[in-house]
Amino acid sequence: MKKSAIILFLLLLAANAFSQKSEWDNLQTDDGELTMKMPAGCYSNYYDRDGITVYESDGRNRYRLVEMRLITCYRDRTLMSLEIYETKQAKPAAKVLQKNLQINGDELNLGGKFYAVEQTDKNENYIFKRRVIAGDKRVYIVTAATRGGERDETMRTFLESLQFTAADKSRSAKANENVVLISSLKSVEPEVGSEKDETEKTNAPFADEKKTEDLTLKRVVILSKPSPSYTRAARKNNVTGKVALWLTFGAEGRISKIQVARDLPDGLLREAVIAALRMKFLPEEENGEPRSRTKLVEYSFNIY
User: Fold this and answer.
1) Within the chain, which residue ranges are assigned CATH 3.30.2420.10?
2) Which of 62, 116, 238, 254 is at a distance of 20 to 30 A from 144, taking alpha carbons?
3) How far apart are CA 215 and CA 287, in angstroms?
4) Does domain 191-301 correspond to CATH entry 3.30.70.360?
5) Residue predicted with more confidence, 56 or 275
6) What secondary structure, in 3-state letters, does 197-254 show?
7) Where, residue-wise, is CATH 3.40.1000 in the chain?
C-alpha cells in the first residue's frame, strides 16, 4: 500500500507540474483588436505614456507613437515579447518602424485593413521571428525567439494564439471572463541608478556562442537593438556624442537595471533609455538556467 501511495503521489506531482507549465493567460486589448496568450505568472509590463517618435529616412515625416507598452516573458528557453503603440497613422508608422528595425520579410494576410509583415532568422543556436502589424489606431511589434529548435512548443503556442480582429468597443472583455485586459496590467519599472552602484559588470563584447568553449554556457544574444531618436532640442543645439549605459540583461528576458555612465542633454538620455528597454535578447544561460548579466552599451548621436 505504501509503495502504491508513493507512486500515486509522484504521478500527482508530475501532473500538477505539467499543468502549471502549460497554464497561460489570455491577454486582450480593451476593444478586442488583439487577443494573445502569455504564460501565467511570467510576463512583465512596462508602460510609458509619451512613447517614441519615428522618422522617415529623409526626415520629412515623423510619427508619434504613444501609450507604449512592452510586455515580455522568458520561459522554457523562449522569449515572447509584444510592443504596443497608439498612433493616428498606424500603417505608415508601421512601415517606418519596419525600415528602422531592418525587418525584410513577407507580408502577412490578417484580413480586413490590417497591414502585417514577418521576418524569420535562424541558425544553429536560435530561431528568431518578428512581426510588425498595423491595426486601426495601433502598431504592434511581436517578437519570439527560442533556443529550443523549430518545434519549440512554447514559441508555437505564443505565435499561434495571436488573433487580430477589427476593433469594436462593444466587444470589450468583461470582468468575469477568463481574460486579462492589457490596460489593467501593472507597470514594472526598471531599476535606475548611477555608475557607482555595486554590480557585476563586464565591458567585454557579446560573445559568439560558436566561440564559447564551455558548452554549458550560453551567452547573451542580442536579437534587436533599436536606434534612439534625435530630439528637436538636441538638433537645434547641435548636441552630439554618446550616451553610455550599464544594462542588466535580466534572466526574465528584459532590461531590469540601468546605470548611467555617460549622459547627454536635451532629452537624449531618455531616448537612449527607451531604446535600451526596447532591446530584444536571449538571456545568458548556464546549465540550462537563465541568469542576469550586466554590460556596457553605447548609443551615438550625430547630426548629419
Assistant:
1) 191-301
2) 62
3) 9
4) no
5) 275
6) CCCCEECCCCCCHHHCCCCCEECCEEEECCCCCCCHHHHHCCCCEEEEEEEEECCCCC
7) 23-184
Contact yes or no for 255/279 (Cβ under 8 A):
yes
Set of cell numbers at residue 290: 537563465
Mean pLDDT along residues 246-269: 96
Class of domain 23-184: alpha beta
Distance CA(295)–CA(231), nearest Å, equals 26
Rounded mean pLDDT, 83-109: 92
* Least confident interval from 61-65, 75-79, 159-163, 201-205: 201-205
Q: How far is CA 190 from CA 12, 187, 193, in A?
A: 38, 10, 10
The three grid cell numbers given for residue 236, joined into one nine-digit string: 537645434
Average pLDDT over residues 194-217: 56
Report strand pairing: 201-202 vs 293-301: parallel
| Alpha-carbon dihedral sign for residues 154, 160, 164, 170 | negative
